[in-house]
Structures are given as C-alpha cells and as structure tokens.
Design brief:
76% of the residues lie in helices and 0% in strands. By secondary structure, it is mainly α.
Length: 329
C-alpha cells in the first residue's frame, strides 16, 4: 500500500513538473550538439532572449487560468510602446522619462480593463473581444506611427538593454524573474489569486460561493494588460526601437508557454513554476537552434509545431493526471 502511494506521488510529481524534464532533455540534446550550450553565458542568453516575451506568457497564463484567452496581449504591448514612443520623440518630448516609464503598465492596464469589462460585464466571448482588440490596436498603430521610432531616451530602453552595474546580468532577466515571483505570490497566496482559479474552474460555483465573477474578470484582464504593458517596455529596450507590428508574431508563442507549462486549457489550474518552465523551453529552443546555425525561418516554422505539441502534451498530461488521482488504492 505504502509503495503504491509513493509510486503514485512520484508519478504525479513528474506529470505536474513535466516541463522541467522536457527542458532537461533539451539542454542535454543541445549540449551534446554544441558544448558551449552548457555555459553560464548561454543560460543568461536563454533568459534574456525571452524576457520580453515572458511577460506576454505571464499575461496569457493568467487569462487561461481564469478560463479565458487573450489574443490582444501583443497588440497591447505594441500600442503602449507606440504611444509612449510618440510622446517621447514627437508629441511631448519635454516629459521626463521617469514619468513615461510608469505609463507602460498604466496604459496596458486601462486597455485590459476595456477587454475585461466587455468580457465580464457585457458577456462578450473572450476570443472575439480580444481578437477585435488585436486588430484595432495594430490598425491604430499603422495610422499614428507608420514607420519605426528610433533614438528613444536612454532610460526608456534601459530595462530591455542594460545590465546590472558591475555584472554581466541583464536587467531584463532580473525583471523577468522578479515578475514571476510577484505573480506567484498573487496567485498562490492572495484572495484575488484564489478567485482567479475559482472562476476558471466554474463561474457558477464561484457565484454560489459569493465571488463577484464579473469584477474578478475585469480585474484579471486589468492584470493581463499591465503585464502586456511591461512587455512593451522590455520589447522597446530589446529592439532599441518601436515598430508598428512589434510582438505580433509572438502572440501564438505567448499561448505555447503556459499551455506546455501545465495551465489547463479549460481554466482553473496552472502554476507560475510551470509557466516559467514554458518560457524557459522557448528560450532553450531558440538559442539552441541559433547555436546550431539554423536560420530564423526554421524557428518560425517550428513555432507552429511546438504549439501543436504543447496542446497534445497538455491534453495527455490532464488524462494521466486524472487517472492517477482517481486510481483506486
């Protein structure tokens, strides 16, 4: 009996943390193909390469845990960056950068509230609402800034391009890890976090427990918008410029991270440990293929394969997990 229970706990541990075993396998594979992959600098490169994308993954992960999806995370990041870039260079260049930087999460949060209000209060389907927002935001970007914005203030690009003084540690990596810790605390330790999981599991049961589902949805999408705005700040620094279609091609990768990291497609389950593992996997594959000399076109094609594999892994993991939990002693 004890051996069976221990074996089941071990199996559940592997299932729940499958992404980290996948990552370990990828690291060994790429390391065998190119020994430089095992260096500390490569680890920093992996995390730095996905630092901006990571906040889109965080945002999408929270939306999925709540039982919804958000196709507009990239659009929010790009729109926020375009607005602030235009303010810094053309509309109000006299505004200090220290005032402009907080506008990234503020504008992102406001856009998230609009999405959340339409989804929570007006009962618009989250796929349709955020797809509409995606199209509108990128369309407005083309209207107000058809070209690339260069020569942005140094403080604005610092978050995504500078390193911690006296070290080789990118500031963006610190922000990425700090963001993961804060979100983990919110999801795992606060009443608001428990409500996000609850409405993702069942809105009807949540209402029966006294949870204001509509307000929770609005607040959830506000958080999604804030994280997308921060992603815009990091993308700006990473690219050292603002482009009209910034982050557009990363929308589907933003889904891949949380899905392969264990966030349930139906909502109500997932963790920051798994989501961060999903982000790391994307970085490992990107840097691994780069070190092996594969062109960017290969990585673009591989994104679709990875998303399909992520859905398959997620579905299979849920079935195995259910069998382990319901298996008789």
């Amino acid at each position: 009996m004890i051996l069976r229970l221990s074996g089941r706990r071990l199996a559940l541990f592997v299932v729940e943390n499958l992404i980290w075993f996948i990552n370990l396998g990828l690291i060994i594979f790429f390391g065998i193909m190119n020994f430089t992959f095992f260096s500390t600098s490569t680890l920093m490169m992996i995390l730095y390469s996905v630092s901006a994308l990571g906040f889109l993954v965080y945002a999408e992960g929270i939306a999925l845990i709540s039982g919804h999806m958000d196709l507009s995370v990239g659009g929010i990041a790009a729109f926020t960056s375009v607005i602030i870039g235009k303010l810094a260079l053309e509309w109000s260049p006299q505004i200090p950068s220290l005032i402009l930087i907080p506008l990234y999460p503020i504008i992102g949060g406001l856009l998230g509230i609009v999405n959340g209000y339409c989804i929570g209060k007006l009962r618009v389907n989250s796929f349709l609402q955020t797809l509409s927002a995606y199209l509108v935001l990128y369309g407005v970007n083309v209207i107000i800034s058809p070209g690339t914005l260069h020569r942005l203030p140094e403080l604005i690009v610092a978050a995504g391009s500078s390193t911690i003084p006296s070290t080789q540690l990118p500031l963006a990596v610190v922000i990425l890890i700090l963001g993961a810790v804060i979100i983990h605390i919110i999801l795992a330790k606060t009443r608001f976090g428990r409500r996000i999981y609850a409405i993702g599991g069942s809105q009807e049961a949540s209402r029966a427990c006294g949870i204001n589902v509509e307000k929770t949805i609005v607040a959830t999408f506000a958080c999604v918008g804030v994280l997308s705005g921060i992603a815009g700040l990091l993308y700006t620094g990473y690219q050292l410029c603002v482009t009209t279609y910034m982050a557009r091609d990363d929308v589907f990768r933003a889904f891949t991270g949380p899905i392969i990291g264990g966030v349930a497609l139906v909502g109500g389950r997932g963790s920051m440990v798994g989501i961060f593992g999903g982000i790391t996997m994307i970085g490992i594959i990107d840097i691994g293929l780069t070190l092996l000399g594969y062109p960017a076109s290969w990585r673009t094609a591989l994104n679709g394969v990875i998303l399909g594999a992520a859905i398959f892994v997620n579905t299979t993991r849920e079935k195995i997990r259910w069998r382990l939990l319901t298996k008789a002693d």
